[in-house]
Design goal:
Strand content: under 5%
Structural class: mainly alpha
Number of helices: 1
Largest sheet: none
Radius of gyration: 28 Å
Number of strands: 0
Length: 64
């Protein structure tokens, strides 16, 4: 029975390592997604700022 228990322990160890690797992969993917989402939010805010500046410039030119 020693051989079967050793094989079982080895299989459990491999399963644990695979599980941890999958969890790490999922975490890295989520982190990358959050990073990209933050970049999109920044670009959206910058574009909104630029639109507001252009709109204000046009209003100023119309008043003059």
């Amino acid at each position: 029975m020693g051989f079967l228990e050793d094989a079982k322990d080895a299989a459990e160890g491999v399963a644990d390592k695979i599980g941890k690797a999958v969890e790490d992969g999922v975490d890295r993917t989520k982190d990358k997604f959050e990073e990209l989402q933050a970049d999109v939010d920044v670009k959206r805010a910058e574009l909104h700022r630029d639109v507001v500046h252009k709109k204000n410039d046009v209003k100023k030119d119309l008043r003059d």
